[in-house]
Amino acid sequence: MAACSVEELLAKAEQEEAEKLKSISVQKELDLEFDVGNLLACDKNRIETRDLREKKRNDFLRALARDNTQLLINEIWKLPTERVEEVIVAKLPEQTTRLPREKPPPKPKPPTKWEQFAKLKGIQKKKKTNLVWDETAKEWRRRWGYKRAKDDTKDWLIEVPETADPNEDQFAKRNKAKKERVAKNELNRLRNIARAHKVKTPGEGLLPKAQQSKDELAKAVSVAKTSTASVGRFQDRLPKEKPPKNSGKKRKFEPLIGDFNSEKQKQLELLKIMGSKTPKLDITKAVNTQMREEDREEAAARRRKGAGGKGRKGNTAGRGKGKG
Amino acid sequence: MTQLDGIVKPKTKRSKRFLESRAPKLIEDVKNTMIMKGGNTSQTVTTALKDIYSLKKPNAVLYKKKNITRPFEDSTSLEFFSKKSDCSLFLFGSHNKKRPNNFIFGRMFDFHVLDMFELGIEKFISLSQIKTSKFPEGTKPMLIFAGEIFDTDNDYKRLKSLLIDFFRGPTVPAVRLAGLEHVLHFTALEGKIYMRSYRCLLKKSGCRTPRIELEEIGPSFDFVMRRTHLASDDLYKLAHRQPKALKPKKKKNISHDVFGTSFGRVHMQKQDLSKLRTRKMKGLRKRKGEVVDEDQEPKVAKVES
């Protein structure tokens, strides 16, 4: 009797389990493909077209959707859950569907000079507090920026050190030092950016070009030579190098109180030229310029004719060969 | 902002933040959508656009004015708009005699058109026609695609990828179990695509996993596929390229068993096998302070004898 009842109980328990599972189990020919990270499910089973008549369509679609959603929910409920602020939350896995990006991935920036050095030496970045206690003002102030803690340019009293010149303006000195620091920082920042973008900043005298002309190379050489501490006075010249042509002062001025006679002569001559009505024309120069112009035009015309004629001659020859 | 060679340099912190939000990132945020109207639109098209806008809020912009452009012929104005509003997905609705109730779904890569699909609306039931309560905006929907054609036909594969991109919402690490309410179901059959939107009711079943009951809510569309403009294979591959930094770094010398046990590998120096002691002999054990001097012992013995 007991044995019968045990069997009955077991059978009943099994039946109940099956009923429970029936409500959430769905029969499908092919399993669905799930991408739980995206809350996505793909059903590849064949859909009978018979079921899709106008009236029954919506109901059929709804039943299909219900089955597929049930399967997806079953998958989601298998995920590990945790409790976050009285709410049960399921942790989603990584997404499996690959979708295109919006923009191309960013290029990694090359490390700056300081970053390279820090990596070499093994210096770690230390997180610093934003506010520092300022003793003189007896309050918390920023570490840097507007109204910072220890700003030496804002001192209203500076003691002149013994070694300094008494006429020197100490306030101006501090301001200048600060400006120099800011300028140096800015220069380094721009250099870092230029290095990151691989922009070639032109060095003195030589711009990056495919072919450098003779004059440019000569100029570069002369500039490099004069950029020493003694402005190139003790630099040896190469065996075949000629002394630079255009060195020396560009303009020569007469002394203020010099030769009075020559000055008088110069001024009188100038007045005579200005007073005379005839135009000042150098005939030889004019004739030479005119002759040069004519020669140039003739040469250009000859070149044009020559090119046209030669081209035509070449073409006819080709055609002849082609036909033959 | 000063411009130099097309690079804009920000002068204020606010403009710097703005530029940083638009710059390309390693892990990208949610794609924004722009919803716009063409030269001529019908009532169905305007209500449909509004419904999709409400589905996609807040990651969408709905433009009120009509834009007289033809995306399939000239996509420059679309690209200009996407650059200005930083949107990489777009939906263009129009209506004319040849193509009535036309929707163009599209996406961009680097502000150039990647894919475009023209779908015609045959039947449309809007949100306002179905009288039930709606969701709060921003709920992440579950997406279900039915129909084997979504995996066999190339056009449909790309369309599936675009629809996933369009409707999936922000990428989240975890999801609230009670908040899984919205389901979007796409069925492809006989050249038509049926889109239905349901609310999911989680009913008690005997075990932990709930039983689902669906209630129709939201817009329902019957689409028919018209023209397509697919990106070339190389551009498509280029758009999928992920930066190397995102690849998970492999830990060296650690391997895992089928059963889940993890094994580690230790590298040792080469052992001198001549000094290897296989048996423990108590006499040979070194004791503190005692110096075992083998050379001196025989000398001592000689002296004694």
UniProtKB/TrEMBL annotation, chain A:
Keyword Lipid biosynthesis assigned: no
Any single GO BP term: ribosomal large subunit biogenesis
Transmembrane segments: none
Compositional bias ranges of the Basic and acidic residues kind: 234-244, 291-301
This protein's record includes keyword Acyltransferase: no
Annotated family: Belongs to the RRS1 family.
Keywords, sorted A to Z: Nucleus, Ribosome biogenesis
Name of protein: Ribosome biogenesis regulatory protein
Principal place of residence: nucleus
Region of interest (Disordered), ranges: 224-260, 282-324
GO CC annotations, alphabetized: nucleolus; preribosome, large subunit precursor
Compartment(s): Nucleus
Role summary: Involved in ribosomal large subunit assembly.
Compositionally biased spans, kind Basic residues: 302-313
Source species, domain of life: Eukaryota
TrEMBL record, chain B:
GO process annotations (BP): maturation of LSU-rRNA from tricistronic rRNA transcript (SSU-rRNA, 5.8S rRNA, LSU-rRNA); ribosomal large subunit assembly
Biased composition (Basic residues): 276-288
Nucleus as UniProt keyword: yes
InterPro entries named in the record: Brix, Rpf2
Source superkingdom: Eukaryota
Keywords assigned by UniProt, alphabetized: Nucleus
GO-annotated cellular components: nucleolus
Cell compartment(s), UniProt: Nucleus, Nucleolus
Brix domain span: 31-234
Spans annotated as Disordered: 270-305
A single GO molecular function term of this UniProt record: rRNA binding
Similarity remark: Belongs to the RPF2 family.
Designated name of the protein: Ribosome production factor 2 homolog
Lineage, highest ranks first: Eukaryota, Metazoa, Chordata, Craniata, Vertebrata
